Amino acid sequence: MKKIYIVGAGGFGRELLWWIKDINKVQPTWEIAGFLDDDPHALDSYECDYGVVGSIKDWQPKEDEEFALALGSPALKRKIVAILKEKGAKFATIIHPTAMLSEFAHHGEGFIMFPYSKLSANSTVGDFVTLLSSPIGHDTYIGDYSVISGNCSVVRNVVIGKDVFLAAGVCIAQDVHIGDGAYLGLGCVVLKDVKEGDTMFGNPARPMPKMK
Questions:
Q1: Which CATH architecture is the domain 2-92 placed in?
Q2: Which CATH homologous superfamily contains domain 93-201?
Q3: Which three-class secondary structure state does DSSP give residue 151?
Q4: What predicted TM-score, i.e. pTM, was given to this entire model?
Q5: Distance between CA 34 and CA 140 in Å, rounded?
Q6: 183-188: long-range contacts at Cβ-Cβ below 8 A with a sequence spacing of 24 or more?
Q7: Which helix (H) or strand (E) holds 184?
Q8: For residue range 127-179, what is the model confidence (pLDDT) as tens digits?
C-alpha cells in the first residue's frame, strides 16, 4: 500500500483528507501520511488528525509515495505540479465512493471528484481537473487544470478549455465553448461562447471590462 500526501493544507486539503478516508473505508487504498505545505503552521488553528509533514518546495518524492492535489487555483496547480513532477512525483486520482462516473467517461492524471459529483457518458476531463459536487452532462470536455466548483450545472456537449475556473452555482447551456483561462463568477448563467481569458459575471453572463 502506497503512502499518500495531500498537497496543500488549506480548507480544500482538509476536505480531501475526509474523502480519502471515505475511500479507505470502502477499499483500503492508501496509507495517509499527512500534508505538504510551505506554511508549517497551516493547520495550527484547526482540529485535524494529520499534520504538515514537510514543505512542497523541499520534498523529495519516493517510489512508494503518491500525491493528491488540494489546490483551488488553476495557475497554482500548474506551478506546484511542475515542481513535484520534475522530482518524479506521481499523482493519485481521488474519486469519492458516492460520485457517479460513467463507464464511458474518461479522465486524466490527478483527477479529483468530490462526493455526489457526476461525469456522464462519453465526457472527458484532462489532467489535474477538480470536480466538486456538480453534474457534468454527456459529451462534454474539460481541459487540464480546470476547476468546477460546487452546485454548477454543465448541461451537455460543452467544451471547457484549460485553466478555467467555474465558481459555485455557474450554469452553462448546451453546446457552449469556454475558452482557456476564463473565470466564471458566482452564479453565472452562460448562454454563449466565452472568449479565452475573459472574466464573466451575471445572468446572462457578461464579460467584465479589462483593467488597464
A1: 3-Layer(aba) Sandwich (3.40)
A2: Hexapeptide repeat proteins (2.160.10.10)
A3: coil
A4: 0.94
A5: 34
A6: none
A7: strand 183-184
A8: 999 999 999 999 999 999 999 999 999 999 999 999 999 999 999 999 999 99
